[in-house]
Amino acid sequence: MKIDARIVRKPSEAVVPLSAGQTANDRKAILVVSFGTTYPEARQAAIDQVTAKIRLAFPEYTVRQAFTSRRVIERINTREGIRYLTEEQALAALAEEGFREVVVQPLHMEAGYEYDKVRRVVETYRDKQAFENLYLGRPLLYYAGQEGVTDDYLAAIQAVRRTFPPIGPQEAIALLGHGGLHPANAVYAALQLKLQDAGIGQVYVFTVDGYPAVEDLIRRLAADGVRKVTLIPLLLVAGEHARRDMAGDEPDSFQSRLQDAGFEVSVCLQGVGENPAIQDIYVQHVKDAIAEKKDFS
């Protein structure tokens, strides 16, 4: 399936003809927004596949992609000659082309800095009244099942556990999230509690940058008598963080640090965006944004 993912021209030049049976009054689009990655194979395996799943589920919508990382966009353009649009450029193009309804669906793990970046742009375009309807979907981890709403954590847990290898006594799985200083990064500690509440043991959560850190992981693994651990990225793509920070040969990689601490380590280089069950969750989040006609912000 060909992905309508890349617009090489300037937004003002990017004009897409009406689909068969589509009028100017009912033009609808879904903008799939992610941080992006400079690894082409990871981009194709994860971001493009999520986009393809969304396109399949919403044939009446035009589906586009945008990246929030300006650095990633520039590196892809330099290395591959492909110009991805930012979230702002993509919305500008959709407005200029006369789309009436737009759903912006981020592929971020949590409502952190990158999600905030998307939310601010959506609010700007809503203030401009650039579209009749402009909806913002929620990230992977948002609702926690309180007050009768869906439990995004449990849905994500059920999806990712399908990829877990068998683990025996004194073995464990460690899920690597991104982390950071944004308060939303507390989702990773919450995810650990959700795993425990679901009765899923021998699975630990840690982050590249934040809490729980790799030092916390090492301490907990040692306290629980774990000898062998499998590292799995809780990241959309298996890009820089998965390949270098997690699985790199450098002394400061998480694999090396765990080995130095006496653990036997294996790694999985598959982003969660490659998981069909995770792809289905993003499709559902688009459906929720359309049905509920509101922002998740």
UniProtKB/TrEMBL annotation:
Origin: domain of life: Bacteria
Source species of the chain: Propionispora vibrioides
Protein name: Anaerobic cobaltochelatase
MF terms in GO: metal ion binding; sirohydrochlorin cobaltochelatase activity
GO terms (BP aspect): anaerobic cobalamin biosynthetic process
Key words of the record: Cobalt, Metal-binding
Active site: 178
Lineage: Bacteria, Bacillati, Bacillota, Negativicutes, Selenomonadales
A matching Pfam family: CbiK
